[in-house]
Design brief:
The chain has 296 residues and is α+β, with helices and mostly antiparallel strands. The chain has two domains: 6-103, 2-Layer Sandwich (Phosphorylase Kinase, domain 1); 109-295, Aminoglycoside phosphotransferase (APH), C-terminal lobe (Aminoglycoside 3'-phosphotransferase, Chain: A, domain 2). Helix content is 46%, strand content 14%. The chain is built from ten helices and ten strands. α5 (144-151) runs parallel beside α9 (252-276), α6 (163-182) crosses α9 and α9 packs antiparallel against α10 (281-295). It is globular and about 60 Å long.
């Protein structure tokens, strides 16, 4: 088990006490908990809290994240998704304390990109997204132009960029304008479908709804394809699995352009986040990884 530092342990214990999950009459003592960092998420803010039969996933809010929802809205969307059995149950949320606690899905493991790209993985992922997109809950609409403007600020403002990055920034803005004109915001989208946010315990489930938006289904389909490196054949099979016998409301060329938009948003999000994070390394590594897909 990877150790955590004393300050993080103290913050986790304080969070559990704040939401009444430790040192309460019917809850375990705080000093009896063991904490284990969980994989996934560049901010490294999620921990498994264990004490006897009690196990919860505790996420600390930390600093503001570019493009992220506030904790209360994230908890609300997660709870609604849990009612559709596609997310873990919300146990507690306290925005002032900066903590969101969800149930621990015993036996669940993050899927890997190779599994998601298989024919069975594509079928299961498409079915998962169709269930997600049935949610009916008030949420902010996806505005790629606003996200682009946010990520292209501060250290990533155009005047600070080299010629290659200025070219990518112009492409991002153009694709964002095109998306906003073309696609209506009609379904709840997860909007961060990296493999580590998709868990499998015999049933696929989603975690980390902090970037959720109201958007068109194409956004999640493109996000899944972009995050897991789907080739042209896998992208086509994903669209076919999602829409079945009905024609998709976009061409594969249009789909590829939204995949490109998602990658560009992710790239500049990572650069922006690295410029403000205490630990830049995870964001810089993600930016390098994404850059490779942009230049391919």
């Amino acid at each position: 088990m990877e150790p955590i530092d004393d300050a993080t342990r103290a913050a986790l214990i304080a969070a559990l006490r704040k939401v009444g999950l430790a040192d309460a009459p019917d809850k375990p003592p705080a000093d009896g908990f063991a904490f284990q960092p969980l994989a996934g998420g560049l901010g490294r803010r999620a921990f498994l809290a264990s004490c006897g039969e009690h196990q919860w996933v505790v996420r600390l809010a930390g600093a503001d994240r570019a493009g992220a929802l506030d904790l209360v809205d994230e908890a609300r969307i997660t709870a609604e998704a849990a009612s559709f059995e596609i997310a873990p149950r919300v146990v507690a949320c306290d925005e002032a304390a900066g903590v969101l606690v969800t149930e621990h899905l015993r036996g669940a493991r993050p899927v890997d990109a190779r599994t998601l790209k298989s024919p069975e993985g594509i079928r299961r992922a498409a079915a998962l997204l169709k269930r997600l997109h049935r949610l009916r809950i008030a949420i902010r609409p996806f505005d790629p132009e606003r996200f682009a403007a946010q990520y292209l600020s501060g250290a990533c403002a155009e005047e600070h960029l080299d010629e290659r990055h200025r070219r990518l920034a112009r492409e991002l803005r153009a694709l964002a304008r095109e998306y906003r004109r073309r696609y209506p915001s009609i379904v709840v989208c997860h909007n961060d479908l990296v493999p580590s946010n998709i868990l499998d315990d015999g049933r696929l489930r989603l975690v980390d709804f902090e970037y959720a938006v109201l958007a068109a289904p194409i956004l999640d389909l493109a996000g899944l394809a972009a995050s897991s490196g789907f080739d042209a054949g896998a992208r086509r099979r994903l669209v076919e699995a999602y829409y079945g016998s009905a024609p998709a409301p976009f061409t594969l060329i249009e789909f590829d352009r939204v995949v490109r938009l998602v990658r560009l948003l992710g790239y500049f999000w990572a650069l922006h986040s690295a410029s403000t994070a205490a630990d830049r390394a995870p964001y810089e590594a993600f930016a390098r990884q994404t850059a490779a897909t942009l230049d391919a």
